[in-house]
Amino acid sequence: STPVAIFCALLKAARTGLVVKGGDILEALAKTKIVAFDKTGTITKGEFTVVELWTLSNDVNTNTLLFWISSIESKSSHPMASALVNHARLNSIEPKPELVNDFQIYPGEGVSGDINGKKIYIGNKRIAMRAGCMEAGPVGEEIKEVVTVGYVLMGTLLVGFFTLSDTCRTGAKECIEELKSMGIKSALLTGDSVAAAMQAQKQLGDAIEEIHAELLPEDKVSRLSDLKTRVGPTTMVGDGMNDAPALAKADVGISMGVSGSAVAMETSHITLMSNDIRKIPKAIRLARSTQSKII
Ligand code: ADP
Ligand code: MG
């Protein structure tokens, strides 16, 4: 009867929109003590709106800034990229990705490219440091109410910055509260700033136990290892290419199937075929009841 119980559970999971890559995964899921959530695209919708855009240089007006940003970001699949491209179009600026040479992605940091003979970097504080600019930090700290701050650098020079807002997914708070009621802790792991992480925490309420911000993909892995030793069996939920190593490290990795990256889906053990993260506590309940039927 054991394989039958597992088969039924997998079928039931599939009907609720969870693709589970094997019966042993349910066994691991049933043991979960903590769920680590990525922020952008997992807890939040990953549908950004550009709030503001400033130029910090007399030589670069906002139209030029938007042209550079949108042309380079046209080559990126990050959730922030499409918002920036849309924002340019709304301001009647047509991106020209064909003018961008040497496009590069720095996971957890941002992107860069050469355009009209200039090296442009777009991203967070880390990318500013990578470009050799040390003054990007304080600018970000002054903007307290803002969700995500992006910097634009021309070579080592900080030439502009922008702010983006994102919203938590419907049911994110309920998901974390339900996990808590089941005796399971929750943590937030993000590559975004401390301010952005705290903003999300405010919307999620007290049920979230820990937040860790400004993490590179490899930092997510070390945080995950730490959770495993401190708390116990850990499930990780994420959508991005930056989450893939952590998804692989987790006892159970869950990817977002609708808007997530292909690499996250390949690395995970379970794919959520809807954006409803409330399916996660439901899946753990199902896994637990399957275990009790087997034992
Ligand atoms: P999260 O862990 O919250 O999903 P990411 O690791 O994808 O976030 O990104 C971390 C940070 O890196 C973003 O908040 C952003 O500041 C910066 N970033 C990443 N990709 C880009 C991009 N294409 N353009 C601008 N900034 C980016
Ligand atoms: Mg993400």
UniProtKB/TrEMBL annotation:
Transmembrane found in the keyword field: yes
The keyword Transmembrane helix belongs to this UniProt entry's keyword annotation: yes
Keyword terms of this UniProt record: ATP-binding, Cadmium, Hydrolase, Membrane, Metal-binding, Nucleotide-binding, Translocase, Transmembrane, Transmembrane helix
Molecular-function GO terms, alphabetical: ATP binding; ATP hydrolysis activity; metal ion binding; P-type cadmium transporter activity; P-type zinc transporter activity
UniProt GO cellular component terms: membrane
Record localization: Membrane
Family affiliation: Belongs to the cation transport ATPase (P-type) (TC 3.A.3) family. Type IB subfamily.
Protein name (database record): Cadmium/zinc-transporting ATPase HMA2
Originating species: Apostasia shenzhenica
Upper lineage: Eukaryota, Viridiplantae, Streptophyta, Embryophyta, Tracheophyta
